[in-house]
Amino acid sequence: MTTIPVKDAWKQGALLSEADYAAWYRRSVEDPEGFWGEHGKRVDWITPFTKVKNTSFAPGNVSIKWFEDGVLNVSANCLDRHLESRGEQTAILFEGDDPADSRAISYRELHGEVCRMANVLKAHGVQKGDRVTIYLPMIPEAAYAMLACARIGAVHSVVFGGFSPDALGGRLAGAGSSVLITADEGRRGGKSVPLKKNADRAVEIAAKAGQVVSTVLVVQRTGGDVAVTPGRDIWWHEARETVEASCEPEPMGAEDPLFILYTSGSTGQPKGVLHTSGGYLVYAAMTHQYVFDLREGEVYWCTADVGWVTGHSYIVYGPLANGATTLMFEGVPNYPDASRFWQVIDKHQVNIFYTAPTAIRALMGAGDAFVEKTSRKSLRVLGSVGEPINPEAWNWYYKIVGEERCPIVDTWWQTETGGILITPLPGAIALKPGSATRPFFGVKPELVDSEGGVLEGAVSGNLCITDSWPGQMRTVYGDHERFEQTYFSTYPGKYFTGDGARRDEDGYWWITGRVDDVINVSGHRMGTAEVESALVSHPKVSEAAVVGYPHDIKGQGIYCYVTLMTGEEPSEALKKELVAHVRNEIGPIASPDQIQFSPGLPKTRSGKIMRRILRKIAENDFGALGDTSTLADPAVVDDLIEHRQNKE
Ligand code: WT7
């Protein structure tokens, strides 16, 4: 496998050298107290911490605390402390869906808007510890809303704007939010997204689940015609005129919650990942600075949505804590055409660009001409996140987009980890296409076999992390037992990531993908159990089993085996109906790619569905089904193979 050594140009002015990485890493794992005690000072503390690390992965007693006696405010760290030195610098560079629509928001303006929104929330009774749900498009108000919550100590729960009313309703109820912040409509690829309409339905669904939403703050984005419920709905543009542009930041304990973010797991409904204030901010800011080798005055662009953790850590909190200029893009990669990303890079002279493999593959498929007609000379560092990047896409990104001038940082992490854990550093770590390379400071990865035995040397296995880092999630909101069960019970004493990985002879890490029933569709994480439960909620469906299969653009596609109720007939029309049903229940990101009607599913005699077999059939790899002798009825397999959908 080719290695790309750190180029001299990447070393020029770099924050860290190869020797620095080695020394810092060694210290970070040998003396975490000393290392993090020092780097914890990168944020402003109202009351400095005296304790650094107090963490345990011990079975039955998982507890994670960092900087626990420190007091700070996250929004003050992202805003107030920059006002003197960089008040007029652009904090958020907004690029609308329509290429004619862009604007720059300075740190001073951002501070004012955040304070105003904080005051509006306060005026509607929001207090420290209350949960506020945010369902917004990619507009600056999404950042205002998050930072406004942080300012007054409210806990935000951002729900991706592509989720359905059902999904939003469930999350409103799960978080116990009585306040929702949304917009009239979103704009994506020239089309409107009916956010307020969805929000209205979600509020009804939440009410049925016992959660009353008493305030809906509505941002006017398109001016589209939307229903307004008097006494409940407030227009942001009206409310902001009634409040002051200053608001004292609430002093928060380092371990006070900052946000909840729902994410899919291998079983059950999505869980609320809880992140707290101090450790999260230190880790998000530090990784953002070193992983992207951030320089003063640069323009940084992460194309994620604020509805995902990448948007939290690397559009809002990390960049703003670092006083960077962060670009927020409302649109999609192929609107008006497949040159959009590269045109935006030229327009705003973007230096650091961070996107997902699925976008890279889609744009690669559109042809090089869309890239080559743009300059991209401003680019210095390229990043990738969300799923394994195949070497072909990596090489295209490196050669065509970056013209071999820019290092690619392939950053591996998770909603749960709060920030990047395994990644190259531009001036310090040689690259291998497809490898996330080396652990960040303080991160101790380990490979274990299925019995939990620790694997040494160049080997593949299940990826665990053996000690805590400051950005780690603290609990599943309202369910600490589920937290322990999900992450610390498979391999007791270790955080189990759910990913498989390989360590090569140079100690480089290659993430191979999920080893559990979580699938990754276009970088969106989904539990197969969620899609199954959406399918079986359809009156004609008796049973469903969902697996991922390789998909050229999306990384993985969603393959559904569906058993119908007795008397129901399979048809193309019913397939369409089921696709629409799943979109309705979860959202468009969960649209099934393949539906196979199957009279029977392969089950063991004890009734357990053998997903391994279903995966193989979906992958068209049924030559090697492995041991089928434990099946209750081996004949179902032949029928499944015969009627498979993914024939190539
Ligand atoms: C899962 C986490 C964390 C940002 C976005 C996704 C996969 C993420 C990589 C990468 C290979 C990756 C893993 C992980 N993943 N980044 N660079 N290489 N796989 O967050 O939705 O919590 O998903 O995404 O499978 O477990 P998420």
Brief account:
With 648 residues, this protein is α/β, with parallel strands linked by helices. It has 21 helices and 31 strands.
Give an overview of the whole structure.
- Its cofactor is Mg(2+).
- This is Acetyl-coenzyme A synthetase.
- It catalyses: acetate + ATP + CoA = acetyl-CoA + AMP + diphosphate.
- InterPro entries: Ac_CoA_lig (IPR011904), ACAS_N (IPR032387), AMP-bd_C (IPR025110), AMP-bd_C_sf (IPR045851), AMP-binding_CS (IPR020845), AMP-dep_synth/lig_dom (IPR000873), ANL_N_sf (IPR042099).
- The structure is a single chain.
- This protein has 648 residues and is α/β, with parallel strands linked by helices.
- Helix content is 32%, strand content 23%.
- The chain has 21 helices and 31 strands.
- Strand 27 and strand 28 form a beta hairpin.
- Helix 2 crosses helix 3 and helix 11 crosses helix 12.
- The mean pLDDT is 96.
- The site of 5'-O-[(S)-butoxy(hydroxy)phosphoryl]adenosine has 23 residues, from helix 12, strand 20, strand 25 and strand 26.
- 5'-O-[(S)-butoxy(hydroxy)phosphoryl]adenosine binds next to helix 12, strand 20, strand 25 and strand 26.
